[in-house]
Amino acid sequence: FGLMTYDPAFLNTSSCRSAITYIDGDAGILRYRGYPIEELAEKCSFLEVSWLLLNGELPNPNELSEWTGLIKRHTMLHETTKKFLEGYRYDAHPMGMLISTIAALSTVYPEAKNVFDADNRKLQIARLIAKMPTICAYCYRHHFGLPYVYPDNDLNFTENFMNMMWKMFEPKYLANPILSRALDILFILHADHEQNCSTNTMRCVGSAQGDPYVGCSAAAAALYGPLHGGANEEVLKMLDQIGSKDRVAGFIHQVKEGGGKLMGFGHRVYKNYDPRARIIKWAAEQVFTVTGYNKKIEIALELERIALEDDYFVKRKLYPNVDFYSGIIYEAMGFRPDLFTVLFAIPRVVGWLAQWQEMLLDPEQKIARPRQIYTGHGERHVVPMADRH
Ligand code: CMC
């Protein structure tokens, strides 16, 4: 093992070369394909940014119109997929449902295995991006026993999603434009984040050349964990547990004494303010002009204020991350907390697919297969059962 590098949790390992997303964690910089995240959030739509991540350049008007049309054409789920969803208990966690439903799509589109055919790849990528909001809305409606609402192609990406979630009777649910734009911005912010745990999973599974559905299902499973995308749901639980602004200092004291983590704080790469959290804080202000002020934001702001002045957090360079404020916005918009990680997965599927495609086209990439430092027994021999004590 002389030449083997031991790097548990990849703290110091670059697993690939990538031209998609750039992060400078010390400076708090995030760029997609060279564009600052702040500019993309202000000037572009989620579908424009999806095209950018997948193709390397922003779309021109014709490309955007073709791309939007392609996405709209593939929003429907095969009817058998609905039956599949109906098999779940009413209280099944939507992430469990999402993970298995994405994998089930692999059986609906067996041609997806042909991963080196560029046209086929484009079709499967569009299908996945288009169907994620539909699956998410169906998971939600399944819980309440509500009839599913079919996609409405007169609406844009986020309006259509909100209509599938919340339409009750005719006419359609028309989202407040401030809210649908805020959701679009949140989708942009979550679309990619270089080699995070779920993206690394996507590349790892994809390196065995399986189809993108099984890859995205595995990536979504990685995202589900509370240290990754599951953190946004945990933040809301934490804010509920704290209950009021005057209990924040006591809670932080508890965290410092080893009583758990401050959820939505800290990041492997950012040792500065997560730029996405800054934009989300701004978006929250917009959302509250429509939904009214939310008591949880007061608790969150107080948490941030105290933590950013506290030696424990300063010394460890722990700042709010993307998950700290996102759940508060989602809740204000009317999403249930168990959907928060699904709301992370809808846009992140774009990053998974862009990174997967980049990996497939990279001649240096092979099947992911790390080595290990073996710490077990040396050779030994089986003792007959009668002699074992
Ligand atoms: N609250 C309190 N202490 C913390 C926190 C936190 N949120 N995060 C890290 N620390 C401490 C940790 O205990 C350690 O202290 P010490 O040096 O005394 O042992 C030190 O800071 C370094 O932490 P680490 O665990 O070595 O850092 P990591 O890079 O392995 O973990 C992390 C990064 C995001 C998993 C971690 O900060 C964490 O668990 N945060 C809370 C969960 C969270 O918000 N996750 C969302 C991450 S961003 C979006 C995403 O990826 O989905």
Automatic annotation (TrEMBL):
GO biological process terms on file = tricarboxylic acid cycle
Gene3D superfamilies (UniProt xref): Citrate Synthase, domain 1 (1.10.580.10), Cytochrome P450-Terp, domain 2 (1.10.230.10)
UniProt superkingdom = Bacteria
Give the annotated active site: H267, D323
Catalytic function, reaction form: oxaloacetate + acetyl-CoA + H2O = citrate + CoA + H(+)
Which Gene Ontology molecular-function terms are recorded? citrate synthase activity
Record's keyword terms, sorted: Acyltransferase, Transferase, Tricarboxylic acid cycle
Answer yes or no on keyword Transferase. yes
Q: Cross-referenced PROSITE patterns, in alphabetical order?
A: CITRATE_SYNTHASE (PS00480)
> What does the record give as its pathway?
Carbohydrate metabolism; tricarboxylic acid cycle; isocitrate from oxaloacetate: step 1/2
Q: What cellular component terms from Gene Ontology apply here?
A: cytoplasm
Q: Which residues form a coiled coil?
A: none
UniProt KW Magnesium keyword: no
Question: So what family is this one in?
Answer: Belongs to the citrate synthase family.
What name does this protein carry? Citrate synthase
Q: Which organism is it from?
A: Paludibaculum fermentans
